[in-house]
Structures are given as C-alpha cells and as structure tokens.
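Re: weekly structure request thread

Next one in the queue (173 aa):
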Amino acid sequence: MLNSNQSSNKKKRQSFTIIKDDSTDGHGGYGMGSITLENMSSIIVDPGEDKAYVDMDAMHARSEVERRVKYIKDKDEVPNGLLYWIVWVTVEHGDQGPYYAGVAGSELRVDRSIRRAYKSMAEHVNHMEKSLKGNIIVDHMDAHSKKLLGAFLADFSEEMWENSNEELKNSLL
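Done, posted below.
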C-alpha cells in the first residue's frame, strides 16, 4: 500500500481537458491540445412530439431525456424505446456572418416504463468531433427528424441558416 508520501511507478496520464477559452495564450504549456466547445450547442429532436429544442445539459449527458435511466449497450434491449436525436451543432463566423458549420445527429432511445435507454457513447463523441470539424452527418436520421431539425435551425436564426452551405440545407429539407 502507498501512503501519501510515496508514489507509484505507474505512468502518469495526461487528462483530456475541455475548456472555454485558450488558457495557454499560445505559449504551448499546460492545457495545450485542449479544445473549446464554446461554439457548439446540443439540440434535442423529438420526432414523437414533433419538436426540436436546445438543451445545453446534453453537452454533459444531463439533458431531461437522458436523466433517470440506466444505459444499455444493446439497442435490442430497449425495443419500445422512444426515438430522440441529440444533434451537435457548431457555429462559425465567415465573411457573410455566423453560420451552422457542423451538424451531426446521434441516436438516443429511451423507454421510461423500464427506465432503460440506449445510446452509443462512441457515436456521440465521434459526432461531436465531426461537428467541431465542420462535417454534416445527418443521413442516418429519419426524414421526419431531419425536417424538424431543418425547420428549427432556420427558425432559430434565419441569418445563420442563409449563411450555411447548401449541403446542410439540402440534407435537412
């Protein structure tokens, strides 16, 4: 056993930090390689209720639809789960002004009656990264959910919608 004055021979791992602003100011010290989620928002698309809305708690897996359920790794174990999409939306500023740069939807299935839910954490993390990199990943979403998302984004900010690329608009409408 180790006491507080001893150290183990195990390698110390650097942890991955998510910070709001760049604390390094370019000096390359602690925090170098960290990312900012300042320009990312999480939108919940609920096709069963015909609505889409911003829920920033989803950034930390604490949205209302994600709470009070146990997550199962096998989608087949949640056969009656209601479908939701957590959509990671990244906003950038271009010559014309702000625009939706990256949009990636991640599946979530929730069955409140058995307090179980399915989501692939790897998919959610990968989609967050893809959104930050400016990718549009919505082809796997059902048509109704894509229309809800497109209408929400256009209504939320007509300027950002108009400034967004045609790939996004064509994918969602």
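The chain has a mean pLDDT of 81. DSSP finds four helices and seven strands in the chain.
Next request, please.
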